[in-house]
Amino acid sequence: MAEKTDTQVIIGGKVLTLTGFESEEYLQKVASYLNSKLSECGEIEGFNRQPIDMQNLMIQLNLADDYFKAKDQIRLLDEEIKEKEKELYDLKHELVTSQIKLENTEKNLKNVQDNLDADAKKLIELETQLKNNNNSSSGYQSNNKKR
Hints:
Helix content: over 70%
Distance between the termini: 118 Å
Number of helices: 2
Oligomer: single chain
Largest sheet: 2 strands, antiparallel
């Protein structure tokens, strides 16, 4: 289990000790954020003339506003991530489908090439046979003519 961290911070001009399981840097970051919110609200006209409980309420409302905006942003980013994951899944599926089509096309091409090679071989055999037949029938005809 993580150890507790005690860190002195300045919030609203007051030195406070924050204790938590987070790092000192994180606790300083939180204090800095609160100081920026205090400064931001202090710039609003009439803020400093309000009673302290109204000032605190306005600061709390600003913090809640930041929280809900951040939460909405997270929701939007989560939706975008889901859309991107779906798109990625669809692209992977399309890639696999294309690879299967390519493999099938390559197999068909090989079969056609094999058939073409076999037909070419058969054609050569038939041409050779025809040539041999012509040569032997020419010799037969010349023998017939001599008689």
